[in-house]
Every structure is written in structure tokens, then in C-alpha cells.
Specification:
448 residues; seven-stranded parallel β-sheet; 46% helix; 2 domains; alpha/beta
Length: 448
């Protein structure tokens, strides 16, 4: 009985201050209900875990605290998985929006009548990406000369039953459209759901005069935070695609034919996936003839740290467009918000104070001055931050958390080597146009 009372006392003694610490600020805004419930849930989870752990041989002291934090993490993950009902999510993402129910007629788009890609299997994100291609009217509005109709290739996980067959289908689309005759070929690694951000592709299409192609091969239908088990499969997809494209480039060089400038783009889990496919950093960038690479909001962790080190000599990392160097021609760019919880979240945040919360160092943008590190608590706080890291309102571009829309126009322009292609007036016009394109798309989808 005394042991039981002692365990309860331990649980309360740690759970109450944990709940108090959990009332501190976060990196991004939360819904009021989550903000109100979080301290109590975390306090009970950690306190309860400690109380239970203190009764189990070998789980005393700090190990009990770890058990409590583990229980909190497992409970949170289980709640999210149950709440989102994975099969239902996959079914929803496999459906094409009503406004895009008809296959495109443009010969340069996957899923058209000229394409071997079955449009009905592209899924929601694939259809959105294909149907978001920029037009001659967009180029005219920006005042740039359009010389070609852009090529967009998308292959979904449902279009073929293996990585090799999906990559082969993508390659057949690129070859069918003579994509290797274009000036630029952008390879985008999609997020877990197949989401491929159209904005950086829009920038390349507009600033190249349409003399470009883009390709994206998906590996799932679930949001990125539920697709972490697919990183290896996704990395294999990217690696096989890179190898297939490189094989085509070698053959063209041997025949004295034109080869396009290879651009890489990945956002969020897509960035991690593309980096997973290039484990040696700059060495493999040379191998795959990469002209420029832009990775946005890469999830944090040791793998991210290692990749940054691999590319350190030829990379630049910015939080926002104002930090774009005026005298650099680096080919590797990282766009990472100081206050992006997806970038900041990592396992060791549970037991080690990170530099970005060191009270002796300057704070990054959008990191609250009142935010302090607490063992376990900060890890749980930033975990919840990741859930609410992207609060997208069409046309309302916010340079906050995991929302990079306000930064992508300028950063993609610099990262892909288009600096100096536009006048000051056109540069401002590009930002306005990108917002207009998104608003028009959202209105078509009924989201505006």
C-alpha cells in the first residue's frame, strides 16, 4: 500500500509541474480546444507513466520518465491514426476532384488522350498537379516571352504495381513528349499523399518561357506524417527515377544530343525522400548531373544534419527571401523556417536542449522569446506543433511554420538560377501572379 501511495505521489509530483510547463508558448497557433486540453493530457500521461514505471523493476528514476514520455507519444500517435482512419483517407485521396473529372486535352500532360497514363487513377493530387500547368495568359500577364507549352508528367502509385513499372511509365511519358529536348527538367519528390507543389514548377515554367518539363512519381496516398514508414520505398522510387533519367542523359551525350539542366525539388517529406536517394550529398549531385536543387522544410533529425554537412561547401540555407545572398551561385538551397516545427522536431528534443532554444543565443524568427526547453515537454509541444504547422488559406501566403508559399517565388527564382531574368516590376508581379493562380485554383475547387 505504501508503495502504491508513493507511486501516486511521484506521479502527481511530476505530473503537476509538467502540466504547468506545458502551458508555455508553441511555435505555431493551436486550436483553442487543443491549447486548453494539452497541459492536462501531458501531465496525466507523464505522471501516470512515472507512477506505473516506479512499480516495475528496472523502470525507476529517469527510465520511468522516459516511459511516461513514451506512453504520451504512443497515445498521441494512436489517437491520430484512429482518428484519421487510414483506409478512408486513402480512398478520399484516390478520388479526383469533380472540377477535374475530365482528362486534359493538352498533349504535353499525363493522363491526356495521347498519354499511356490512366487519368482516372491519378488521384486527387496528381490531377491537381497536372491541371495546374501555367498558360500563355499567365506568361503574358507577367510580360515574359513564352516559346513552348510546358510538359508535366505525373504517375501515381495506382498507375502501376511496382516502383520499376511506375518509373518506366514516367520515362515513357518524358520520351513521348521529347522532354529531354527542353532546357530544364525538374524532378519533384512528392509528399506522402502524392501532393506535388505546383508553385516552384510554375516559377520554372514562367521564367523559362515554358521550355521545361517536370516529373513526379508518387509512392502513397496518405499525409506525410502518416507516411514515415514509406520513406525507404519513396527513396527507392526517387533513386530509380534518377538512375533512369541519368541513363537517358548519358545516351544523349554519347550521341551529341542536347541534355536539359536537371533541377531537383522536394518539400517536407518529399525533401527527406529526395535526400534519402542521394546519400552522398554533393558527390551524387555530380553523378546525376544536377544543375540546381531546392529542398524546402526538410524534417529534422540526424539524417538532415548529415545531409547538410555533405552539401555544406556548395549550399545556402535561408529562412526567408530577405536572406537570399546577392553574391552566391550555390547549386544547393535549403529553405527552412527558423520556427518550422517540422524542421525542429526530432527525437533528442526530449532529453537535450537544442541550440535554437539556448537562452544565450539569438532567437530565430517566429521562435517565441518566452519559449524555454523542458525535458519531455518541449518534445511533446513541438510534436503537436507539427500537426498544426500548415494553416493554408488560398491566396493568403504566410511565411510561418511549415507554410512556405510566401517565400517560394523569390527563393525558387534564386535557387534555380533565374536571378536577373526579371525586372524589379516583374519580380513583384511574379508574387502577385502566384497568389492569383492559387486563388483561381481554390475557387475552382470550391475552397476559395
Amino acid at each position: 500500500m505504501k508503495d502504491f501511495i508513493g507511486s501516486v505521489a511521484i506521479g502527481v509530483g511530476v505530473g503537476v509541474p509538467t502540466a504547468a510547463a506545458a502551458q508555455g508558448p508553441s511555435l505555431v497557433p493551436w486550436p483553442d480546444r487543443v491549447r486548453a486540453l494539452f497541459p492536462a493530457i501531458l501531465g496525466v500521461s507523464v505522471g501516470g507513466g512515472l507512477a506505473i514505471g516506479s512499480q516495475v523493476q528496472g523502470l525507476r528514476g529517469f527510465k520511468a520518465l522516459a516511459a511516461g514520455a513514451g506512453l504520451a507519444g504512443i497515445g498521441t500517435a494512436g489517437f491520430l491514426v484512429a482518428k484519421n482512419k487510414l483506409s478512408e483517407l486513402e480512398a478520399q485521396n484516390a478520388q479526383i476532384d469533380e472540377c477535374f473529372s475530365r482528362a486534359p486535352t493538352d498533349v504535353y500532360l499525363s493522363g491526356s488522350v495521347h498519354s499511356a497514363v490512366d487519368y482516372s487513377l491519378l488521384g486527387r493530387e496528381g490531377a491537381r498537379f497536372i491541371n495546374s500547368v501555367t498558360t500563355a495568359a499567365h506568361a503574358q500577364a507577367l510580360g515574359v516571352n513564352r516559346t513552348h507549352d510546358p510538359i508535366r508528367v505525373f504517375v501515381s502509385i495506382a498507375n502501376a504495381d511496382s516502383v520499376s513499372s511506375r518509373v518506366s511509365l514516367a520515362m515513357s511519358e518524358l520520351i513521348r513528349n521529347k522532354a529531354f529536348d527542353r532546357e530544364y527538367l525538374l524532378i519533384q519528390a512528392p509528399a506522402g499523399s502524392g501532393y506535388s507543389n505546383s508553385t516552384p514548377v510554375d516559377v520554372v515554367e514562367l521564367l523559362s518561357g515554358g521550355d521545361c518539363a517536370s516529373v513526379s512519381v508518387s509512392y502513397g496516398l496518405l499525409p506525410s506524417f502518416l507516411s514515415l514508414t514509406r520513406v525507404r520505398l519513396a527513396g527507392e522510387t526517387q533513386l530509380e527515377l534518377l538512375n533512369a533519367i541519368d541513363h537517358e542523359l548519358v545516351g544523349r551525350r554519347n550521341k551529341g544530343k542536347h541534355v536539359p539542366k536537371i533541377l531537383l525539388y522536394g518539400e517536407s517529406l518529399g525533401a527527406r525522400v529526395q535526400q534519402f536517394a542521394i546519400p552522398l550529398g554533393s558527390a551524387d549531385l555530380d553523378k546525376y548531373s544536377v544543375h540546381r536543387a531546392l529542398w524546402v522544410g526538410t524534417p529534422g533529425g540526424r539524417a538532415s544534419d548529415a545531409f547538410h554537412r555533405f552539401c555544406a561547401r556548395e549550399s545556402v540555407t535561408v529562412d526567408r527571401p530577405e536572406q537570399i545572398p546577392t553574391d552566391t551561385d550555390k547549386r544547393v538551397w535549403f529553405l527552412e523556417h527558423d520556427g518550422d516545427p517540422v524542421v525542429r522536431f526530432r527525437p533528442d528534443l526530449a532529453w537535450a536542449q537544442p541550440a535554437w532554444l539556448d537562452p544565450e543565443l539569438p532567437r530565430g524568427r517566429n521562435i517565441p522569446a518566452e519559449m524555454v526547453w523542458n525535458v519531455g515537454v518541449t518534445w511533446a509541444t513541438v510534436l503537436v506543433d507539427t500537426i498544426f504547422a500548415t494553416n493554408v488559406k488560398p491566396g493568403d501566403f504566410q511565411s510561418l511554420g511549415h507554410d512556405y508559399r510566401a517565400d517560394l517565388g523569390a527563393v525558387a527564382t534564386a535557387a534555380f538560377g533565374f536571378t536577373g531574368k526579371l525586372t524589379a516590376e516583374q519580380t513583384k508581379g511574379l508574387e502577385v501572379l502566384l497568389r492569383q493562380i492559387e486563388v483561381a485554383r481554390a475557387q475552382k475547387l470550391g475552397e476559395g
